[in-house]
Amino acid sequence: MPRTGARGGPQTRARIAEAAAALFLVRGFDEVTVAEVAREAGVSSVTVFKHFPRKEDLFLDRSDEAVDLLRAAVRDRTGDVLGSLRATTLRLVEERHPLSGVDERSLPFFRTVAASPALIARAREIAADLQRTLSEELRDDPGFDGDGPLLAALFLAGYATVTVETARRIVAGEAPTTVVADHRARFEVLFDALTRTGIERRAEGTGSV
């Protein structure tokens, strides 16, 4: 039976996302309608679109959280930006956070995205939006001394490259423990490379997060 509840608020949004993910993972993104998601969540289609203007965002529903993480990495840092981004990235991996690419639902998630051109296209749009967000944060940060647009482009491209390769290996059935260890190691390589570029000029005595 569909569940009922208030039409607004974070609990309703979470319930809609949960219902959508369950349907998409079983039947595939393109085979499920918004009306079916609404019925499963116990709300109207209007309420679904109130929380998720695009169907793709029902599945790729963590873009706002990713934006918040990027902003916090810049605004709340105690050292340099690269050190803060590194700390945030590795913390997500250690926590097996959904945004890390190695959480417990990674396999069905990656399979669902790979099977849907609409989800692939939306994922690329989200990545571009995140790059703009980070670039703007660095532009407006008086404590950052470096090339913000280039750092944002290289960091997001590197993050995507690591995640896509991890997705390929997970879908291929490689051992999770090996994949996760390599996933983390490749992020370390990414940040080592970004540091060596000198893309962020560091004041003497400034340390990493």
From TrEMBL:
PANTHER family: HTH-TYPE TRANSCRIPTIONAL REGULATOR BETI, HTH-TYPE TRANSCRIPTIONAL REGULATOR RUTR. This is TetR/AcrR family transcriptional regulator. Residues 33-52 bind DNA. SUPFAM superfamilies: Homeodomain-like (SSF46689). It comes from Pseudonocardia ailaonensis. It comes from the Bacteria. Residues 10-70 form the HTH tetR-type domain. PROSITE patterns: HTH_TETR_2 (PS50977). Keywords: DNA-binding, Transcription, Transcription regulation.
